[in-house]
Amino acid sequence: MERTIQKRLPVGEGSWVTVDVYGEPDAPGLVVVPGAMSDAHTWRHVARAIDAWPSVAVLNRRGRAPSGPLTATYSLRTEVEDLGVILDEFGGITSLFGWSYGGLIALLAANDRPLRQVIAYEPVMRPFGRHALPDLKAAHDRADWDATVDIVNRQISGFNKAHIAALRADHQGWAALRRLSKPAHAEITALNTAPPPGAMARRADRVDLIIGRHNLGTAPYGSSFDDVRRHLPDAEVHELPAQGHLAHIQAPTELGRLLNALAAAR
User: Which keywords appear in this protein's UniProt record, sorted alphabetically (predicted)?
Assistant: First the structure.
């Protein structure tokens, strides 16, 4: 399906979020919550591959244009409350999908309100990325976004020098990563300073967790996935073959098909 509208919604403290809506804007569908180093535009190919819901609303979280700033009191709870504003605006939404940090936000939102289904692709939780916080802070204080992108990819995601060199060689892609890296320090800090969750998706009827097969049992994403899974013993677990953490970029059609299949299972 194609994008039909973009909505801008105030979320308090002078900030706002935008939502890209695909399909029928007045028909309740699926809300997609991207994670760090990602935005609504990055998820356009996945949204277009989904047809099991009448609409797909992709949240552009704070800190990335055209949404507003994080604000001084930003926290993980801020993200959950922002998502609540979206769910209130699009009345009747009963399904959420979140990726990485967005997966955690979606799972926590389902503690606040009843939802029919929450799907999370490799959700992360504390202490994910904690070891990189000093270097992230130093790079952020210098407004050194090249260093920030390098830290996220090398120290947190564990990618090798060849992978990072390939990213740098794509000048347009690297410029986009620089823009998306600006909230990274605040987001990793929020992830690691939030109280440990006592429960996740407490009010969801069904929880589906997805992991790329390349990350099974491996740090950092597979190990954080296992930490989340321990909080959700009744969740259904699904593997996406031949993929790692970046399936929305490397295999958007395959990810969309899996989401369609999970919609049929609810």
Answer: Hydrolase
